[in-house]
Amino acid sequence: MQASNGFAQNGASAASNGTAAPENGHQDRENGIEATSNTKANEEIVRLIGQYLKNEGLSKTCDALMSESKCRLDHPAAAKFRQQVMDGDWTKADHHLQELKTMLGPENSIVEMKFLILEQKYLEYLEDSRVLDALHVLRNELTPLQHNTQRVHQLSSFMMCSSTEELLEKTKWAGKGLRSRTTLMDKLQSYLPPTVMLPPNRLNVLLNQALELQTIRCTHHYTSIDVALNNSSLLVDHCCPVADFPMHTVQVLIDHCDEVWFCQFSPDGTKLATGSKDTNVIIWDVNPETCTLSLKNILENHRHGAAYLSWSPDSTHLIVCGPEECSEIYLWNIETEKFLKVTQSPEDSLTCCSWTKDGTKFFVGGIKGQFYQFDMEGNMLDSWEGVRVNGITCRKDGKTVLASDTHHRIRSYAFGELIEQLVIQENHPIMSFTVDKKDRLALLNIATQGVHLWDLDDRCLIRSYQGVTQGHFTIHSTFGGADQDFIASGSEDNQVYIWHIRNKLPIATLQGHTRSVNCVAWNPVYPQMLVSVSDDCSIRVWGPKDKIPKPSVSSSSNSDSSNNGTWNDMVS
Question: Where is the composition biased (Low complexity) (predicted)?
Fold first, then answer.
């Protein structure tokens, strides 16, 4: 009679046609893996489980599994070799190593393995103060191998150590015993094919790879939390809750009295700067616990408005650029609230800037042909004639500057060497661009085309992102998330779009602004915080759902904290 759970009462599983298996079973079913299913994959799975059990100290359970499944964990010679290494029986280990010789790969593998064994033997003799035995190993066993001579010389110097503590300190070695021999065995295993001996901790490696792939596929994994075996469940796939993603309106600020053109977090994540058509730049303090902003100070009197901002690498200074008709830039010290006005000619147009990575110099440019390098005192150090640029980014090498120009391209400029090279060529105007923290990827907002992702090293277009409405207004996008796996952009349809970097379709659209969204900034240190600014004069702070404040008004003196923003999740 078949049991209700699908198994026969005598313990044999039900056959696929619903009838119970024969009462006496099949010999292979009783004693091991069923003959028809004893595939290579099944055998390898059993071996992996066996290795895991053995590593966990369940040797008897492992032996029972191997016996019942008719599998073997390792080749008999390899198993003996392992035991002798772990016991420190170096003579027998060398003997069985010769037996394994025919199973090894490259010809020099046997020499490299023997060298590792003799190195351990030599160090253990030194720790035991058996100096003559150690000297014998060095002269008569290690040196004749004629392998890694530099290491042999280093090993000989350890004979001068006057104590065990000094020996362990100089060698960075764990000392005689289980720990160092396990490390040695892990190294030796790498020379043996997996059919002879499984690689170390193979099941753990596979499970970690699976978790890593799940993390990559998780469309909302934006934090730096390590997804590993010790803090993850294997019973369900990894999936970050949508509610934890920064797509919920936490705060709305209306301290600017005209269109807000630009926003940028300081590199240390503690401050935000916003620039507006109202001629003011506001510096905000960041509260990462509540994902909110509080007014720190207002930098006033930028004649034509503040269209572009750039923080110094140490977060102490801020450059303010104006729109096309602006011929000067403002270099502010944020703590002292003092500024230096930098200008060369009233005919100039200085609309974009970027700091060198050491923070001692910066580059400024504009579409009327100006491209300058200044120091912190406002002295012009160098210039490049005839380049009409609308975007600048300094690269990590400290020598190269990327600049987008009116010919729909991005070129690299090495001022010291007077070398320029084409990096990117688009078919439509480049309205703005930014580079990721690894200095490898560039994110471009292209007129009438939307957002494009380029590889700067391979100089190829990786992906075009869909959904955003991009005409001829300047919209600034951003990379985001702890590993910059996300992209966010404003749009002329009053929304903020967010994509996972590997997916051309948006994972969410954030609604709340009533006019074009000009710029989006993602906090580089606290990735749970996203900010957008708009022609509707507002600044919106986006965060996880649990950061939405309870019904109460809390903001700066003239700020509105109403949370009337919504989001649409684009991924089911």
Answer: 1-21, 552-564
Cβ-count burial of 501 within 10 angstroms (0-12 exposed, 13-18 middle, 19+ buried)?
buried
- CATH number belonging to the domain at 254-569, selected among 3.20.20.370, 2.40.50.140, 2.130.10.10, 3.30.750.24: 2.130.10.10
pLDDT in tens, 45-90: 999 999 999 889 999 999 999 989 988 888 888 889 999 999 999 9
- Each domain of the chain, given as residue ranges in start order, spans 74-200, 254-569
Strand duo 486-489 + 460-465: pairing: unpaired
Q: CB of 294 within 8 A of CB of 243? A: no
pTM of the model: 0.74
Residue 564 has pLDDT above 90, yes or no: no
CA distance linking residue 496 with residue 510, whole number of Å: 5
Token readout for 386 is: 């005839």
Could you give the CA distance from residue 163 to residue 411 in angstroms, rounded to a whole number? 61
Asked if 391 contacts 404 with a C-beta cutoff of 8 angstroms, the reply is: yes
Where are the alpha helices (H) located in 197-340, listed in sequence order?
A: 202-217
Q: Please give the average per-residue pLDDT across 196-221, as a whole number.
A: 87
CB 70 within 8 A of CB 30: no
**DSSP 8-state secondary structure symbol assigned to residue 218:** -
